[in-house]
Amino acid sequence: MVLDKLSEGLKGTLQKIAKAMFVDDKLINELVKDIQRALLQSDVNVKLVFALTTKIKERITKEQTPGALTKREHLINIVYEELTAFLGGEKSELALPDKKPAKIMLIGLFGSGKTTTSGKLAKYFMKRGKKVALLGLDVHRPAAMDQLLQVGKGINAPVFVDKGNKDPVAIYKKFEPEFKKFDLLIIDTAGRDALSSDLISELKSVHEIAQVDEALLVLSADIGQAAQAQAQAFHEAGTITGVIVTKMDGTAKGGGALSACAVTGSPIKFIGVGERADDLEPFNPKGFVGRLLGMGDLEALLEKAKEAITEDEAKDLEKKLLKGEFNLLDLYSQMEAMAKMGPLGKVLEMIPGFGNISLPKEALQVQEGKLKKWKIAMNSMTKKELEDPEIIDAQRIERISLGSGVPINDIRDMIKQYKQSKKMVKMLKGENPERLMKKLSRKAGPQLKF
User: What pTM was computed for the model?
Assistant: First the structure.
């Protein structure tokens, strides 16, 4: 989970509210102190922390509880709403026009991760059907263009560079006729050790000649509160339309970076949540806070599901669910989709209810290892066995084990998982979507009880 310590602290606070017999001044003061402690440990600015918790306390003490909510529910809702507002409020979408090509320019200082993020951003839009190209205009850093070429190769995206030219405007003009073949052009620009007048001048020249639609500042989360000064300086220079915060998965300072950007008025558009090319997410404060609090993020989950499974596959699965049908081929398809959605732990934290389940990383790694073995075992099965797993007896299990190299116990575990999944499918047979979601939510794991 991104910002593990902050998430654990905030979840603990909510559990304390949920278990309390009375909502009194003592509980409110404990709640405020717990939130302050959790935010300060995540490197959030002290003044911002106290301003936030003061507002939370004021709302709790002054607001009347709406008729539809209990006092505890209202308390939790206030925490959720204020944390969401604290991190920017509403989701900020990219303003890309319907023209060829739309253009995004990435800017930032040395070490922020611009070039790697260029590839991630390209992959994000390629998965959404866009034809994307990368343009390297970092003419100062040695090997910058070689790195961009490697990034492009890794995601199968074309890259335009001119290593012998030190004029970014001239490089842009050289390749400009080629850009019309693409839906989106992502421009990787040069950085500096600090924001300087010559960097601003260079960025503005590129901005003007390319007529970019979005100029995104790339900031590394590990700089913490220092992000505010950088975001403010670039914002005041008039060179950015938004921010991408990278390395959110590996630092306790991410809370400082996110909150610092939010107060500058520079909206956070994306966050980098891992090292893979797929580990870039649109930043949605509501969903992000939902995950921090263990409430899940259905919007992000559905977005990942759309990437992992086609509309036709989804309709086919829906038909089978309505009929109560399920076999090993369906289980295999589910496993393939889960693998595409990312690491199991990151998927689970998006599911309402599962965000409060504390699963050790070792347990998640063991489960992911099992999924890989099951896929290998399935490749050694006959079509008949995959379509009708009920015929798989001890003799067949032994043959599948010998053919795949997967231990017999792992194959038995797979058959057991299949039977449990089939039982669930039969239980949900013919359910309408609303009732289906209610049933699933009851089985999703421990919820906050009010």
Answer: 0.67
Range of the domain at 350: 300-442
- Determine the Cα–Cα distance for residues 215 and 243; give it in Å rounded to an integer: 8
In a domain, 292, yes or no: no
Same domain, 23 and 154: no
C-alpha span between 231 and 224 (Å, rounded): 12
Q: Are residues 122 and 247 in the same domain?
A: yes
Tokens of 225: 């509160």
The CATH number of whichever domain residue 24 belongs to comes to 1.20.120.140
Q: For residue 361, is it within any domain?
A: yes
| CATH number reported for the structural domain that contains residue 368 in this entry | 1.10.260.30
Nearest to 168 by CA among 135, 195, 211: 135
Q: What sign does the dihedral 434-435-440-442 (CA atoms) show?
A: positive
Per residue of the chain (450 residues), what is the pLDDT tens digit? 456 667 777 777 777 777 776 777 888 888 888 888 888 888 888 888 888 889 988 888 888 877 766 777 788 788 888 888 888 888 888 878 888 899 999 998 888 889 999 999 999 999 888 999 999 999 888 889 999 999 999 999 999 999 989 999 999 999 999 999 999 999 999 887 777 888 888 888 898 999 999 999 998 888 888 888 888 888 777 778 888 988 887 666 777 778 777 777 778 899 888 888 888 988 888 887 777 776 554 455 555 555 555 656 655 655 555 555 667 777 766 666 666 656 655 555 555 444 444 444 544 455 667 778 888 998 899 988 988 888 999 999 999 999 999 999 989 988 887 887 777 666 655 554 445 444 444 444 334 333
| Residues sharing a CB contact under 8 Å with residue 62, sequence separation 6 or more, in sequence order | none
SS3 22: coil
Report cis status (omega within 30 of 0) of the bond before 177: no
Structure tokens at 93: 């979408």
* C-alpha angle 337-338-341 in degrees, rounded to nearest 5: 90
Tell me which residue has tokens 């052009």: 185
* Displacement of CA 418 from its chain's centroid (Å): 29
Is 236 found in the same domain as 107? yes
State the total domains in the chain: 3
